[in-house]
Amino acid sequence: MRTSAVEAWTGRIVLIVVMAFTIIPFITLFVTALHEPGTYPKGLSWPETPHWDNFALAFQSADMLKMLGSSALIELGVVPISLVIATLAGFALGHLRVPFARAIFVLFVLGLTLPFEGIIVPIYYQMKGYGLLNTQLAIVLPLIGLFMPFAVMWMRAHFVNMPHELTEAARIDGATTWQLFWRIHVPLSGPAISSLAILLFLWTWNQFLLAIVLVDDPTKRTMAGALGAFQGQWGTDIPLLCAGSILILLPTLLVFLIFQRQFVAALLQGAVKG
């Protein structure tokens, strides 16, 4: 079915408007970060003398090197473990005949409805009881549990659409369940796993609430959580605060730009298979 010229131009105009609403805040943030520290820029105006050293000053003032190390440690604790558990559980629920699969599926669906804000108090007292407050584990362990419903549902949706002919052929050749999973289905699940890894990375990096509630030391939080302490120290210095915000946003933008092909491929794969 061919698209008419009116529909094509309407789509282009909508994309341009959406792109403008998305990009303009980043441009404003960047331009404001180049103004003289301690000033209050008005509107979207390019400074006469751009202060590029604001980024270095924000990096040093916020001790972002330690924040980067803490964020990397938290990412390494959350993303790989969540991927392994979600892939195994998604394969079991989506492709194998396991007892009470429908009931387990309903429980994961209910888990998707739990808001972080509604369970932050029980999580706080639980981490306090374990003696994990003010440590990276106080962020890692809750995030693994909170991300698991979505991660399992994501991988289950992928494995449900995998052709059963592959499984039957492998069973005839004498493949065990583990061989079926590791040698056949995991290699074919690259787009789904990589896109889930991107989402988990972005969500963990941008996690703010758990970081500021469970960890007092800014150097042990995520980068987004550390921004709260940076804002408290430099909240009146708008250019420096904008420079720090850009430095915190930059890794997530780079990760998405680098791996956007895998992310789009997984979405298109799900759309085609229904």
Textual characterization of the structure:
The protein is an all-alpha fold. The protein contains 13 helices and no strands. It has helices at 5-33, 53-61, 64-95, 101-111, 116-130, 137-160, 164-172, 177-188, 190-205, 209-214, 223-234, 238-258, 260-273. Helix 2 packs across helix 12, helix 3 packs antiparallel against helix 9 (190-205) and helix 6 (137-160) packs antiparallel against helix 9. The model has no long low-confidence stretch (mean pLDDT 85).
SSE pattern: HHHHHHHHHHHHH
Structural class: mainly alpha
**DSSP E strands, number:** 0
The share of residues in extended strands comes to under 5%
Helix content, binned percent? over 70%
- Give the termini distance in whole angstroms: 20 Å
* CA gyration radius, whole angstroms: 23 Å
Question: Would you summarize the structure shown here?
Answer:
This protein is mainly α.
Set out the fold topology.
Elements lengths: L4 H29 L19 H9 L2 H32 L5 H11 L4 H15 L6 H24 L3 H9 L4 H12 L1 H16 L3 H6 L8 H12 L3 H21 L1 H14 L1
Helix pairs in contact: 1-12, 2-12, 3-6, 3-9, 4-6, 6-9, 9-13, 11-12
From the structure above, extract its key features.
mainly alpha, single chain, 274 residues
